[in-house]
């Protein structure tokens, strides 16, 4: 065997001829991918290596809050870099991480009081699942049979295997069914397509009743209900009826089941309040945070637990009750510094207060779309908007998926200067929360034009 066959040589020049590249990108068909490479960014704008400027219409995958290269966040990271970039938080900690944990406790709802750090949203969900299970084993009156989870239909909680187990999106999850655990599947609490006989007025009760039936049957073995509050982002901005979240909270209390709220997408102002749970005065037992935690600057996530959970893990070391989970980069000081600066900025810029007007403006930009026969629904909460394009508006019939209508709209919008990324035929618009009125107007105009160009002219 020649060395060449054992170690095929790299032929760097083939990168020029193949559409693919050294970089294999997530959720991206590399054979059709047209390279879009960003060289720098400022505020809500990205500049490509060829010098084109595009507006960051999905906040760099739903995480940017105050804009790129914000002087305060940049300075906080730089300052921290001069002290320490990374240490472990297993058995020790950094001053800046301690400070962030206290801040998160301060700003999160109710008595959420203990912050477990990881590096991405999926990991925050994994930690929540394991935390819930270990809790039922170790609490004062142990219930070791509680090992199942109830997840909503079309759920999305990340791409690691545990998070995929909860997931209910065909293309993301079905293939991996042989290697995951099965959750108990709840309803899709959708406000657009209602089950037969259900009206907008009765939708909340109908969906909550469905959850109750499942809890009634399975509560003895259910450790937790896991859900995104208010809006299921990756499912296509599926927007729940008002009151659904608080009904589920009540049901979890009634049936002695934990409530895990995944606010990786909805957290940090996205829905118009700092946390979506606040809209319905709900405190989950475990809260998952990610994306916007560092203002979208550095990878960091958090799993925040209430005291009864935390306390079930307290014992003598020799009893082996500590949480058996931990990540190398959990609580990273640079990320913690960015997160503190981002949280402080919410207060300094009075951002939450400003969001009501921004939300109204963003929605206003889409008013004319209601005349387009292919716009089925415009939904979401706050600065989290999904525009569902359909073949037939009255029957709510989707387009043939192979037509890639959503993708074509987003391509057109990008060519016109606004980078957006669809979920099927739902056009997602999630500008950074700091976007100005003029910028929101720009986004609105271009998204409307892109939709018109694709749906009216074919
Ligand atoms: C994005 C997302 C995740 C996964 O976060 P990653 O940082 O991509 O691992 C989990 N849950 C929800 C609701 C999300 O939107």
**Beta-strand percentage?**
15-25%
What value does the average pLDDT take? 95
Helix content: 25-40%
Question: Hetero groups bound?
Answer: pyridoxal-5'-phosphate
Secondary structure category:
alpha/beta
Q: Count the helices. How many?
A: 15
Let me know the CATH homologous superfamily of the largest domain.
Type I PLP-dependent aspartate aminotransferase-like (Major domain)
- Into how many domains do the coordinates divide? 2
Strand order of the largest sheet: 4-12-11-10-7-5-6
Radius of gyration of CA atoms, rounded to a whole number: 23 Å
Subcellular location: Cytoplasm
Organism: Novipirellula aureliae
Subunit structure: Homodimer.
GO cellular component, one term: cytoplasm
Task: Characterize the structure shown.
By secondary structure, the protein is of the alpha/beta class. The chain folds into two domains: 3-66 and 351-457, Aspartate Aminotransferase, domain 1 (Alpha-Beta Complex); 73-348, Aspartate Aminotransferase, domain 2 (3-Layer(aba) Sandwich), CATH 3.40.640. The chain is 35% helix and 16% strand. The strands form four sheets. A seven-stranded mixed beta sheet has the order 4-12-11-10-7-5-6, sandwiched between helices. A four-stranded mixed beta sheet has the order 1-2-3-16. Helix 4 (71-81) packs antiparallel against helix 12 (333-348), helix 9 packs parallel to helix 10 and helix 13 (351-365) packs parallel to helix 15. Residues 1-5 have low confidence and may be disordered. It binds pyridoxal-5'-phosphate (PLP). Pyridoxal-5'-phosphate is lined by residues 120-122, 125, 156-158, 228, 233-234, 262, 264-265, 290-291. This is Adenosylmethionine-8-amino-7-oxononanoate aminotransferase. The modification N6-(pyridoxal phosphate)lysine is found at residue 291. It is found in: Cytoplasm. Homodimer.
């Amino acid at each position: 065997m020649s060395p060449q066959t054992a170690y095929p040589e790299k032929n760097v020049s083939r990168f020029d001829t193949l559409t693919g590249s050294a970089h294999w990108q997530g959720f991206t068909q590399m054979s059709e991918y047209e390279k879009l490479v960003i060289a720098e960014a400022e505020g809500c704008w990205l500049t490509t290596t060829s010098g084109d400027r595009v507006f960051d219409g999905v906040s760099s995958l739903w995480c940017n809050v105050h804009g790129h290269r914000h002087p305060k966040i940049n300075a906080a990271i730089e300052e921290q870099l001069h002290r320490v970039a990374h240490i472990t938080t297993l058995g020790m900690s950094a001053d800046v991480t301690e400070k962030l944990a206290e801040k998160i406790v301060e700003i999160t709802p109710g008595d959420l009081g203990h912050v477990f750090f990881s590096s991405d949203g999926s990991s925050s969900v994994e930690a929540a699942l394991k935390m819930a299970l270990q809790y039922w084993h170790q609490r004062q009156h142990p219930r070791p049979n509680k090992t199942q989870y109830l997840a909503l239909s079309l759920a999305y909680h990340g791409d690691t295997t545990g998070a995929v187990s909860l997931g209910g999106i065909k293309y993301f999850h079905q293939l991996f069914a042989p290697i995951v655990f099965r959750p108990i599947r709840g309803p899709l609490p959708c406000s657009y397509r209602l089950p037969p006989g259900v009206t907008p007025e009765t939708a909340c009760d109908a969906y909550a009743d469905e959850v109750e039936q499942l809890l009634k049957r399975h509560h003895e073995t259910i450790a937790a209900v896991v859900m995104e509050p208010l809006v299921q982002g990756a499912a296509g901005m599926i927007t729940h009826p008002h009151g659904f979240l608080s009904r589920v909270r009540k049901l979890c209390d009634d049936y002695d089941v934990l409530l895990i709220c995944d606010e990786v997408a909805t957290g940090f102002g996205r829905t118009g309040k700092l946390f979506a749970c606040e809209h319905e005065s709900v405190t989950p037992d475990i809260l998952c945070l990610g994306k916007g935690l560092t203002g979208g600057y550095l990878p960091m996530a958090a799993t925040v637990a209430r005291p009864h959970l935390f306390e079930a893990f307290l014992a003598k070391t020799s009893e082996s009750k500590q949480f058996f989970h931990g990540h190398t980069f959990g609580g990273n000081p640079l990320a913690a510094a960015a997160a503190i600066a981002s949280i402080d900025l919410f207060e300094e810029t009075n951002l939450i207060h400003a969001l009501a007007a921004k939300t109204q403006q963003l929605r206003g930009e889409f008013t004319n779309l209601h005349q387009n026969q292919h716009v089925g629904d415009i939904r979401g909460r706050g600065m989290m908007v999904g525009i569902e394009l359909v073949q037939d508006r009255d029957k709510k019939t989707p387009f043939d998926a192979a037509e890639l209508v959503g993708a074509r709209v987003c391509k057109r919008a990008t060519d016109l200067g606004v980078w957006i990324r669809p979920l099927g035929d739902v056009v997602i618009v999630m500008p950074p929360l700091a976007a100005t009125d003029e910028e929101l107007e720009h986004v609105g105009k271009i998204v409307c034009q892109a939709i018109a160009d694709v749906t009216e002219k074919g």
